[in-house]
Amino acid sequence: MKRAIVFTTIGLIMVNLLVGMILSSYHNFNMVASSLVILLSGCLNYAAAIVPLKDAYRVAHLILFSTLGVVMFLLMVFSPHQMKDNWCVVVSLVLFVAETISLYITHKASRKSI
User: What pLDDT does 114 receive?
Assistant: First the structure.
């Protein structure tokens, strides 16, 4: 499972970078930001796979992190081409922090109930 997450993340980043190099309408800011989102989502999925959690929590986090990763990826692809006044970046950062906090809280709750 952990290997699949790592290889899938690397593969998606490579495809994203190749598409960014091929398409002229895919700006560098969007390419880098969407690649970063893929990397962060992969790291969160990997963390959910290695942190000691009950199986139901693990599956729920993997589904949640993957779904929100797709949402954040789409936000980055279609966001404005600058960092300043970019609400898509703000929303993605808030989602990432919320995901991290939820993983931490679930880990603590799962550890106490094991």
Answer: 55
Token pair, residue 41, equals 């989502």
pTM of the model: 0.91
* Confidence bin at 113 (pLDDT 50/70/90): low
How far apart CA 114 and CA 81 sit, in angstroms, is: 47
DSSP-assigned letter for residue 1: -
DSSP secondary structure letters along 36-80: HHHHHHHHHHHHHHHS---HHHHHHHHHHHHHHHHHHHHHHHTS-
| Tally of structural domains, the chain | 1
Domain that holds residue 58: 2-113
* Residue from 20, 24, 21, 69 nearest 44 by CA: 69
